[in-house]
Recover the amino acids of this structure.
């Protein structure tokens, strides 16, 4: 593939650098493109090439600007955007490869064997995840699609937040038209305010962290239903399975963060804040390991 480099992003891939990579396998497929694993012919370096379909796109400049925002992010627990190029068909993003899989993979593995996570591991992951999202909010970026499936792990087992949904609005609040797209993406991670059509703010990202925390404690999702409409009713009513949380093999002062008084409070204004979460002794003492 021959690339024309974009001159307004922090780094680009020129022709010879692109040809230095060989495609190893497809990692994922989406409505607007796909992600593949590339390996350098020179030194064996593995990177993710996220190919976003731009053929027929009328607002390429807007997409380019939003990519630039993500490319500017610098945090040890966020997947690093490395370089960007495009041809007539694709906008290609080269990303850091998180070779440890995802938190969802680990949840499936532990659930299958009914083996709880070690407390130190849970505290480390929650501290790293919360730190990454707090950083995003500090630079006025909302993730808007946090789930166990797009929280990845490095080879060393550290959190790497990814899949930012680059075509989505960033900022303090999202438009109502954009909210519907997010809600359709991962319904069981929707917050009550999102379901009710209210603007998406930082508290909705915090809600998603609460869901992931609950899963790490119990190896199950707090809201289980046979239909999306029933699921949304449970979420809005705050019908969390507290019995599973109480039975989790962790101290109650830790598991309580995933209840309806803290991270899963139905009222966004009363929901636990990340600064409060990160101040908890169990998370504060978690080794950063970076």
């Amino acid at each position: 593939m021959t690339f024309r480099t974009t001159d307004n992003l922090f780094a680009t891939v020129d022709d010879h650098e692109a040809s230095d990579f060989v495609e190893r396998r497809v990692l994922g497929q989406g409505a607007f493109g796909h992600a593949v694993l590339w390996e350098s012919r020179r030194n064996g370096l593995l990177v993710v090439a996220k190919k976003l379909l731009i053929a027929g796109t009328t607002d390429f400049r807007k997409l380019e600007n939003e990519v630039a925002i993500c490319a500017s992010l610098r945090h040890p627990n966020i997947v690093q955007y490395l370089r960007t190029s495009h041809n007539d068909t694709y906008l290609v993003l080269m990303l850091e490869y998180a070779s440890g899989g995802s938190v969802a993979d680990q949840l499936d593995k532990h659930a299958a064997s009914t083996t709880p996570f070690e407390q130190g591991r849970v505290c480390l992951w929650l501290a790293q995840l919360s730190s990454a999202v707090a950083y995003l909010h500090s630079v006025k970026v909302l993730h808007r699609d946090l789930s166990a499936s797009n929280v990845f792990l490095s080879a060393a087992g550290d959190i790497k937040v990814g899949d930012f949904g680059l075509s989505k609005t960033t900022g303090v609040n999202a438009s109502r038209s954009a909210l519907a797209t997010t809600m359709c993406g991962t319904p069981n991670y929707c917050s009550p305010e999102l379901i009710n059509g209210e603007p998406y703010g930082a508290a909705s990202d915090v809600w998603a962290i609460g869901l992931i925390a609950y899963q790490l404690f119990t190896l199950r999702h707090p809201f289980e239903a046979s239909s999306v409409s029933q699921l949304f009713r449970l979420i809005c009513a705050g019908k969390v399975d507290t019995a599973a949380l109480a039975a989790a093999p962790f101290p109650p002062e830790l598991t309580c963060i995933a209840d309806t008084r803290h991270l899963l409070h139905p009222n966004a204004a009363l929901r636990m804040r990340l600064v409060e979460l990160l101040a908890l002794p169990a998370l504060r003492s978690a080794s950063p390991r970076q």
